[in-house]
Write a structure and sequence with these properties.
The protein has about 725 residues and is an alpha/beta fold. The chain is built from 29 helices and 18 strands. Strands 1, 2, 3, 4, 5, 6, 7 and 8 form an eight-stranded mixed beta sheet that branches. A five-stranded mixed beta sheet has the order 9-13-18-15-14. Helix 6 links the parallel strand 7 and strand 8. Helix 12 crosses helix 15. It is elongated. The N and C termini lie far apart (about 80 Å).
């Protein structure tokens, strides 16, 4: 709590200040600000960071926590049509004004003045509705009185300047509003703010007046030269009246907003059920039909049909261009995703399938269809296809989550990542797509350097305790921002990105492909689905091999004993260490050699399991490793991927929904000793789940999806096949 208290009977409202999200400009933490406003009895507070809205979600949460109305605003540079610029304070009065504010902030990154994003004056006029506009300089109000709703006055210490501002406001009939323009909360923090400002690109505008948040009485005392009535009006009455014009705005939706495409539900159903019939006949086995229906019903009920259709289109284009593509999380476990062409990994259990008459035979004792021996169809005599990676799906549970939207990760060749992102924009429309942004904050080491350099420039030295205090105040200020160009948020067709948040882009990116959301991912994931296009170098390697040997990777036989034997050879992994450019997924050197020695893998399913263990955190060392060495369990029995948990528990008759919950928690390392929910424990006890199995889940911090492990195994196998057979071809040539 502040040593200063606001003891005034009627409190002022602050209409202009900056937070630490204003680049190298302020020390104020959003939650600390709102807490202070509540302590001082302020009904509302407006935040006006320079050119951005990064602080808005933090303020929104804090406002609800402390019961303070947040007024969303920005300090903006405005460029008029005669190459003149000025600054203004824009405040959103309602939802319309907030959208206009977002649009103006986004537009500003197309226009720059002195390295600052600038709003064209014509665009401001076009989006005037719903905004309060404050003149930061009275001269601007004199020049354009029709534009401004009020004029700001600051406690600068110059009575003559303040009286001149008051005279202009009175002559124009505009309310005069006293603002702190605060950059820090306490007077003793001024030095830290001066240090921070000195770190700006242009050296910083280090003002002489203390820019701290002021109480009502402090502001009244600072502006007492206006006279009692005018002073009270400027400090209390006018700001409170302006704040009263601003509604309390619910910043973000409280529900998931799935993307939409015309006809997507019909397109998805036609594709999925058409391929289902082509592979398994008009009357497929009941378990297959039930799984497809369960997944499809959940996808359609929660509005994710457009997302699946878009993923299928992206995957189809990628493969047409010769690049493999594969989802790596829950979507990769989905039978709907397989049937729609999003993934080549069939998640059904190991089975035979007749390509002529659709005869289907499951083999429960195997987990991977690749490992099944050759066999002919008992009905028509045709050679049977072998399929299935035995990945139980939790997609129905994932799409039904109410607290967050789906996040899809796609493994993609680095050469195709940009094309995939652009294709997603074409599918949904650029106005419905924005990249995920990132914010860089000032770290302690850099803050210390700033403090020391500032002291050197000022020819002063701080006591170590004070130096550390100043460093601590500077840590966490926004230093820069960036874009994740292949991570995309999607909004529905009946909305635009500006309905959710403003965007920004780097001034160096003149083409503007990398427009990013200003709000951080953690705030948007609850309402907006996200596609992450992840660079996966193994697919580049496969593409290069296809070009070299002319054999499409999808045509490589997956039951070649010599290739599997090669992958299970320690010498192969030794050789890879001598070829650092060979992009075999994940495993190299000692890790793989130890896994081979300790597990003695025999088939393709074992290869998938090895990759699963390699992707885990504390899933192998001191966990599965110990269980296998002690003879407690075999490689086929230990947990290697998160879906192992779902499969093993449901096989023991744990209810599917509970098994899904346990799988999700185990995958994230959230199962802790002594903190297992009672109903989970009761079900595992009832079904006699071995104690070692429960301990293994407790000891692990992360398990990847079996879909990702299968993707790694397939890529590694195909690369090894290409290396072996490419070498044979060279020798024959």
């Amino acid at each position: 709590m502040s040593k200063r208290q606001d003891t005034a009977t009627v409190k002022r409202v602050e209409l202009h200040l900056h937070t630490r999200f204003s680049t190298m400009d302020s020390l104020i933490d959003p939650e600390a600000l709102v807490r202070r406003a509540a302590e001082w009895g302020m009904d509302a507070v407006a935040v006006t960071d320079v050119g951005g809205a990064l602080a808005f979600p933090y303020l929104w949460q804090a406002g609800k926590k402390y019961g303070v109305k947040i007024i969303y605003g920005v300090e903006a540079v405005i460029a008029d049509e005669v190459d003149r610029e000025y600054t203004a304070c824009l405040l959103a009065k309602d939802r319309t004004g907030l959208k206009h504010l977002y649009e103006l902030i986004s537009l500003s990154y197309d226009h720059y003045c002195h390295h600052l994003p600038a709003i064209p004056q014509s665009e401001l006029h076009a989006r005037r509705d719903g905004l309060l506009i404050g003149a930061m300089d009275a001269i601007d109000a004199e020049r354009m009185p029709e534009l401004f709703d009020y004029i700001e006055i600051r406690p600068t210490g110059s009575e003559a300047k303040g009286l001149d501002v008051a005279r202009i406001a009175q002559a124009l009939g505009k309310p005069l509003a006293a603002v702190s323009d605060a950059r820090f909360l306490e007077p003793e923090d001024e030095l830290a703010c001066r240090v921070l400002l000195s770190g700006q690109k242009n050296g910083g505008n280090v003002r002489s007046e203390p820019l701290c948040l002021r109480t009502t009485d402090e502001m009244l005392a600072q502006l007492s030269y206006l006279g009692d009535d005018d002073c009270r009006a400027a400090v209390i009455d006018n700001p409170c009246a302006l704040a009263a014009q601003c509604e309390e705005i619910e910043l973000l939706p409280d529900r998931v907003l799935p993307p939409t495409l015309d006809g997507s539900a019909d397109e998805l159903k036609s594709t999925v059920y058409g391929r289902l019939a082509a592979l398994y006949g008009e009357n497929p086995p009941a378990p297959i039909h039930e799984r497809v229906n369960r997944e499809m019903d959940a996808i359609l009920a929660h509005g994710y049909d457009a997302l699946f259709v878009a993923l299928a289109r992206i995957a189809r284009q990628s493969r047409e261009k010769g690049y493999a593509i594969m989802p790596r999380n829950e979507v990769g476990t989905s039978l709907v995703a397989y049937l729609s062409g999003i993934t080549e990994i069939n998640p059904l259990g190991a089975h035979y399938r007749c390509p002529k008459c659709a005869y289907t035979e499951f083999v429960p004792e195997k987990r991977c269809g690749i490992d099944l021996p050759d066999k002919r169809c008992p009905d028509c005599g045709a050679p049977l296809d072998r399929d299935g990676f035995d990945i139980p799906s939790a997609i129905a549970s994932v799409v039904a989550q109410n607290d967050r939207a789906m996040q899809i990760s796609l493994n993609c060749a680095s050469e195709y990542c940009m094309s995939a992102a652009i294709h997603a924009e074409k599918i949904f429309g650029a106005e419905h797509i924005c990249r995920v942004g990132r914010v860089g904050f000032l770290p302690e080491k850099t803050a210390a350097s700033l403090v020391d350099r500032f002291c050197e420039q000022q020819s002063t030295q701080l006591p170590e305790q004070e130096r550390q205090r100043v460093i601590g105040l500077c840590v966490g200020a926004k230093r820069d921002a960036g874009v994740k160009p292949y991570s995309l948020f999607i909004v529905p067709q009946n909305m635009s990105v500006a309905d959710i948040c403003p965007t920004w882009r780097d001034e160096r990116d003149e083409r503007g492909e990398y427009t990013a959301a200003q709000f951080e991912y953690s705030f948007l994931r609850s309402c907006l689905p996200r596609i992450d296009i992840v660079t996966y170098d193994a697919f580049d390697e496969l593409h290069a091999m296809e070009d070299a040997n002319g054999v499409p990777s999808s045509n490589i036989p997956l039951n070649d004993p010599s290739t599997l034997s090669l992958l299970f050879s320690e010498a192969f992994w030794d050789d890879l260490e001598q070829m650092p450019d060979m992009r075999v997924p994940r495993l190299r050197g000692e890790m793989m050699r130890q896994l081979l020695r300790e597990t003695k893998p025999k088939d393709f399913d074992d290869l998938i399991r090895l990759f699963g263990l390699s992707l885990s955190t504390n899933g192998w060392r001191g966990n599965a490793e110990t269980l296998i060495k002690e003879g407690t369990a075999t490689l086929k029995e230990v947990i290697t991927c998160r879906e192992d948990v779902l499969r093993d528990l449901t096989a023991r008759d744990v209810p599917y929904d509970i098994a899904c919950e346990i799988m999700s928690a185990a995958g994230k390392g959230q199962i802790k000793a002594g903190k297992i929910p009672l109903r989970w424990g009761e079900e595992m006890h009832r079904t006699r789940t071995p104690p070692w199995y429960v301990r293994s889940m407790i000891n692990a911090d992360y398990y990847a999806s079996r879909a990702q492990a299968a993707c790694d195994a397939l890529a590694a196998y195909r690369i090894a096949w290409g290396m072996a057979h490419g070498q044979e071809n060279d020798e024959q040539g």
